[in-house]
Amino acid sequence: MILIDDAGSGSLIGGTIIGVMRYETREFYYDIIPLKYYSSEFFNKKLYLDYVIEIVKTLFLKLHVTPNEKILVCRGYMFDNLRKWISENNYKYINTKIEEPLQSKIESAFEDYAINLGFPERFISYTKYPFHFHRILSWVYADYNERVKLCKTGWKSFRKYGYLPIKTRFDKIKKSSYICLKCNKRIENNSYVKILEFTSNKPQKIYLHDEC
Fold first, then answer.
1. Which of 46, 34, 12 is nearest to 157 (CA)?
2. What is the Cα–Cα distance from 158 to 160, expressed in whole angstroms?
3. N-term to C-term CA, the chain
4. Distance CA 4, CA 55 (A)
5. Does pLDDT of 191 surpass 70?
6. What whole-number distance in Å separates Cα of residue 109 and Cα of residue 64?
7. What b/e string do you get for 33-55 counting C-beta neighbours within 10 Å, with b at 16 or more?
8. Nearest-CA neighbor of 193 among 149, 205, 79, 204?
9. Is it the case that residue 38 has pLDDT exceeding 70?
């Protein structure tokens, strides 16, 4: 039995991972839809849906998938074009919610990918919803010129929240429990800090070292 799922399609940063697993052997392969398909130039054309097909074709070859095998496909929109391709090529599939053992594998793959992009590992380890849009948005604004390059800029939500006015001020904090969102190092007690303020879904403050 073959399982197909995605991870990262709802994350503001990075492309989307498409993964395929053979259930019986736990063989698992994945590839990534490049971020350029989420740019304003490509996103509205939904070319990323066609790229899913190209990924799955390659992964099917690696797993030696045959038309008589049962295939479980995540029922999300990411696989709309793939389902047509599967039917046209005489594979048998079922739309369903994909759970274990693929779910953990593909989510872990996306977490590793996000960390390689520079996203703080502590967000993933200690935060319930590390890839929540507004949480990532604050991380992006902490080093906007560099991190905006990692964003799905074609998203409607990015067009709404990705170009907000930022107020910058400096202050000194006596007791600090903050981590600088730019360099990812602790802000010590009695430190001068740079504070970035903006309003997205609610007023937000970002604390940075004063020289970051």
1. 12
2. 5
3. 51
4. 11
5. yes
6. 22
7. bebebbeeebbeeeebbebbbeb
8. 205
9. yes
**Nearest-CA neighbor of 36 among 158, 163, 150?**
150
**Sheet hosting strand 16-22, strand order edge to edge:** 27-33, 16-22, 2-7, 70-74, 92-96
pLDDT tier for residue 41 given thresholds of 50, 70 and 90? confident
DSSP code per residue over 147-205: HGGGB-TTSHHHHHHTT---EEEEEEESS---B-TTT--BPPTTEEEEEEEEESSSEEE
Q: Write the DSSP assignment of 89-139 as a string of letters.
A: TT-EEEEE---TTHHHHHHHHHHHHHHHHT--HHHHHH-SSTT-HHHHHHH
- Domains along the chain? 2-117 (3.30.420), 121-209 (no CATH)
Amino acid making up residue 181: L
Query: CA-CA distance, 46 to 37, in Å (whole number)?
Result: 8
Whole-prediction pTM value?
0.91
Using left for φ > 0, alpha for ψ between -120 and 50, and beta otherwise, residue 35 falls in alpha
SS3 state of residue 15: coil
